[in-house]
Write a structure and sequence with these properties.
- By secondary structure, the chain is an alpha+beta fold.
- It is built from six helices and eight strands, in the order αββαββαααββαββ.
- It has a four-stranded antiparallel β-sheet.
- Helix 1 runs parallel beside helix 5.
- The relative contact order is 0.16.
């Protein structure tokens, strides 16, 4: 099957906030209901499946809002997705089909999916930046290399304040 922008985005998102097992594919969308709907639409369009969106209360009762998860139970989807990539907090990798793709839009879509999962945006008076954070140093370095190939400069940062050692790619605009 051809790697499309939608599929590349989904693979990038799964690398950041996905959970792929033999029995289900779970996409954690946090507080973002629109992201849950977007993920559902992509899964339906690509695979003809009907994902369920679960709304769960937040951990602390005083916190407002719901946490959204998109889940599909389909073994064939597991087989297909794991043939394309490796998923998991410490083990995810950029799929070779994305790394070696000649279309910048495909590589950009994969990075966009990862950034939607593990990225954040900071807006201060003099500085604006996007960061992508992970505990997976080697794969995040692959992402930084892809950004450079796309003509996007970035900085590398190590966040040692976190209980787990985290690595950041920082993309800024002044």
């Amino acid at each position: 099957e051809t790697l499309t922008e939608d599929l590349a985005w989904l693979l990038g998102y799964l690398a950041g906030d996905g959970h792929v097992t033999r029995h289900k594919v779970l996409i954690a969308c946090g507080l973002d209901e629109d992201l849950a709907r977007h993920s559902t639409e992509i899964l339906t369009r690509l695979f003809g499946v009907t994902p369920r969106i679960f709304e769960e209360p937040r951990l602390h009762p005083e916190d407002e809002g719901l946490v959204y998860e998109v889940i599909v139970w389909k073994a064939a989807l597991f087989e297909y997705l794991t043939s394309l990539g490796v998923f998991g907090r410490q083990t995810w990798t950029v799929p070779n089909s994305v790394l070696e793709h000649t279309d910048d839009r495909i590589r950009g879509a994969w990075i966009s999916g990862l950034a939607d999962a593990d990225g954040s945006f900071t807006w201060e008076k003099k500085h604006k930046w996007v960061s992508i954070t992970s505990t997976n140093e080697s794969s995040l370095r692959q992402v930084r290399s892809m950004l450079e190939d796309l003509g996007i400069s970035s900085r590398w940062s190590v966040d040692q304040r976190n209980p787990r050692l985290c690595f950041d790619i920082l993309i800024s605009h002044r």
